[in-house]
Write a structure and sequence with these properties.
Order of helices and strands: HEEEHEHEHEEH
Radius of gyration: 23 Å
Helix content: 25-40%
Number of helices: 5
Length: 183
């Protein structure tokens, strides 16, 4: 019985060498370095599929857009840079949609107010579909850690470019889109 208590004590003391949150207890040796978890997506991989509700009704599945160049823009109404880049996205959509470009505005609805989303879209006269990410499904799948984030996807469904933060202007967007649309 005494050996059992000693063994239990050794296990408890060993378990207490690390405090919650992964920091070693004072006096304990530091853990070995681990491989960091990458933030965001990398290019050259298949774009994660999703199915999201449209603000104007119905749903959109990303896989149904194969054959089109897709630009996903993750945004929220409270994000000032998102508001700033929306007119550029609207104009790009109007100019390049006939050539096979689809822009999807993915609202982080789990962090936003639906009434505000409707006002925002109406006020800025956004012509492309707005998708509602109620449960952060797409946000998690695309590893969104800052907004706005824009993901450029090839006709084959491969991530070509990820822009975290505001787009750098029309010329920069066109420099990415033109080669994708000409394939």
């Amino acid at each position: 019985m005494r050996k059992l208590w000693i063994l239990l004590l050794v296990l408890v003391v060993g378990a207490c060498q690390r405090l919650p949150g992964g920091n070693p207890a004072p006096g304990a040796s530091a853990p070995e370095a681990s491989t960091p978890v990458p933030m965001g997506l990398i290019t050259g991989i298949p774009a994660p599929d999703f199915e999201l509700e449209r603000l104007d009704g119905g749903t959109v599945r990303l896989r149904d857009l194969r054959g089109k160049v897709v630009l996903l823009n993750f945004w929220a109404t409270w994000c000032a840079p998102c508001r700033e880049e929306m007119p550029l996205l609207a104009q790009i959509y109007r100019d390049y949609h006939p050539q096979g470009l689809e822009i999807l505005g993915v609202n982080l609805t789990s962090q936003d107010d639906l009434a505000e989303v409707r006002r925002f879209v109406q006020e800025l006269d956004i012509p492309f579909p707005i998708l509602l990410d109620h449960n952060a499904q797409a946000e998690r799948a695309y590893r969104i850690f800052g907004i706005p984030t824009t993901v450029f996807i090839t006709r084959e469904g491969i991530i070509h470019r990820v822009q975290v933060g505001i787009l750098k202007g029309r010329e920069d967007v066109e420099k990415t889109l033109r080669p994708l649309l000409s394939r």
